[in-house]
Amino acid sequence: MDLRNITVRIADYVNPLLSSPAGPLEGVAMAMSFEPSLMPRTSKQQGIMMGLAGLTARGLGSVVEKGTQTVTPDAAQTSTRVAIRAGVALAGAGLAAIPSRPGESLWRSGVRSAGQVIAAAAVSGFVHDLGRAGTSRTRSGQVARPVISAVAVSAGLVALAGKNLRERKRVIKRWPVEQNNELPAAIGVGWATYAAGAGLAKGYVGSRNALVRYLGPGRSKRVIAGLVNAGIWAGGAVTLYNGGVGYIGRANEKIEASYAMPPISPLVSGSAESSSPFTRLGLQGRRYVTDVVSPAMIEDVLGEPATETPIRVFIGYNSEPMYSMGRTEMAMAELERTGAFDRSYLLLISPTGTGWVDQTMIESAELLSKGDIATCVIQYGRFPSFLSVQKVALGRHQFRALLWSVRQRLAERPAAQRPNVLVFGESLGAWASSDVVMYQGIEGFDHYGIDKALWFGLPGLAKWSRTGMREGRGPNVPEGSVGAFDNPDDFAGLSDSQRDAMRAVILDHDNDPIALMSPRLAVKRPPWLHSETRGRNVPAEMDWIPVLTLVQVIVDAMNAMRTVPGEFKSFGHDYRGDTAAMVHGAWGLPKVTPEQFASVQHTLVTQEMARSEKLK
To answer: Alpha-carbon Rg of the chain, whole angstroms?
Structure first.
């Protein structure tokens, strides 16, 4: 093969119009991935999104192409192929034209979305065939024409991506850290991501074909080869996953210099009097029992004496790694030892995957309750939440055991001597704790003795989100017993009686991708992307595209939890700017003056800044 032919083949390969029937769809999807979404991105994150968009379009286009090929004769002329693709596109457009209805089923939305995908993939194949036909007639051995065509099409898509990126930067400005998202770097990462994904796909198909050849002809042998191949790849993926999470889990056990000494106060776990060893609390547990609000701090912040000294109970996963009920029993012993049941408020917390609990929330509760509160946390995992989705069932089981044990213990006391039982969870912790009552709703609150619950960033995958209980819908949530809010001002706008009647208060920012993430996004336009119901932080320029919007939200989740010490925001998955107001209002803590509340807010910021200095 001479240099001329090699050049032409390379030009055709990189030309989105000619590379494959799905090529035009891939190119447009990559360019559209730069459009505004819920969160800002770095060049790396934008590039990952670009690559995933191309791979998604490639997969969807391949499925439609296989279907089209089944009705296309092998020796069909270009005119026949184009006519068949036009027919497929019209059929898809017909499905896409199914009118939407309020409250329509997921099936109806899915059929309409499938029509959109079929039509887009068929048009992509249509353009590909026309491009192929046009180049074959006009080339006649030329090199310049295919090269110019490849450069022109690629430049047009890059220009579209650049236009979308400029719009993204203009729209999303509310971020405390500069997000360097530059077009060349993003495109480079995007192509690397796409190449890696395409390479893995080819490797999977190649290994399967090799097994088919090894086993020989026959349908049953092909099935066996496919199953064995899938098993080999799944085993490799599981091995890599376990190795990665094991490494992260060990990192979460390290002892930090600023949190290496056991606490002195007997009112916290890990102290000399505690049955919960300091060395087994884990990284998050040691932080939790060390940075405790003191009565002196409460008096200094509020200008009046503290009612009590706050109590903090933390049971580390390593205390009883094989026996979750053992951790519950340790927690109950600690609550009894510290006198937690004598406080006015008993706050039970379901942590995130690593055992993390936001200190801003704990400090808000301790300051605003004037110290008359005990908090209890049981760790059920050691890995970040995005690697611990499979731990939700364990977290639910762990929290249910704690709730029921507390319920049984308080039943021994006169009603007047029982504390108000409060529940808190954020992110994965909100998912695990809300799932305890996922089938009972508010009746479950009474069953387990919960007075009020406050959940931040309740994931869209949680049962409360998927069934509509989050919005107060369904027979298990009486009217006015549940409220979901974007910010404290929405909650404060209710009357006193409305706030008092709420048993479950959910704070989900309107642009929190973790709260909005749901498989439904793949086939159904969500309410938060309708023009009349968009929230304060959802860009008006963001549109819904079948499947790709779900990928956008997943990538946005990568950046949603990035925070800056001392800069409290009400944006994405950062709830620190709303925490004090929601803790005070949702749980009905004692009233404070505006000056006292401002002092609390100031103290929360200075406390976080001090913690960040200790961790340097």
So the answer is: 29
**Between the CA atoms of 5, 11, 12 and 17, what dihedral angle is there, to the nearest 10 degrees?**
-160
- Band (pLDDT 50/70/90 cuts) for residue 13 is low
Position 462 confidence tier, pLDDT thresholds 50, 70, 90: confident
pLDDT score at 224:
92
CA proximity to 197, closest of 542, 551, 549: 551
By three-state DSSP, how is residue 406 classified? helix
Cross-strand bridge partners of residue 375: 312, 347
Q: Residue 385's closest CA among 552, 553, 248? A: 248
In one-letter notation, the amino acid at residue 484 is: A
Left if phi > 0, otherwise alpha if psi is -120 to 50, otherwise beta: which for 398?
alpha
Task: Give the mean model confidence (pLDDT) for residues 118-135.
Answer: 86
Residue-wise pLDDT for 581-615, tens only, equals 999 999 999 999 999 999 999 999 999 999 998 88
Distance, in Å, from the CA atom of 18 to the CA atom of 1, rounded to the nearest integer, reads 20
Among residues 231, 225, 234, 193, which one has the least CA distance to residue 206? 225
N-to-C CA span, the chain:
60
Number of other CB atoms surrounding residue 559 within 10 Å: 19
Other beta carbons less than 10 A from residue 245's beta carbon: 17
Q: Centre a 10 Å sphere on the Cβ of residue 613 and count the other Cβ atoms it contains.
A: 10
Q: How far apart are CA 330 and CA 250, in angstroms?
A: 23
Backbone angles phi, psi at 77, to 5 degrees: -75, 165
For the whole model, what pTM was predicted?
A: 0.89
- The residue among 260, 266, 292, 258 whose CA lies nearest residue 279 is 260
- Kindly tell me if the per-residue pLDDT of 312 is higher than 80: yes
The residues pairing with 347 across neighbouring beta strands, listed in sequence order, are 375, 422
Contact by Cβ (8 Å): 10, 146: no
Closest CA to 558 of 345, 349, 384, 338: 384
> Given strand 373-378, what is the order of strands in its sheet?
311-315, 373-378, 345-350, 420-426, 452-456, 504-507, 482-485
- Average pLDDT (252-259) is 84
Please state, in angstroms and rounded to a whole number, the distance separating the CA atoms of residues 520 and 57.
18
Residue 571 per-residue DSSP state: B
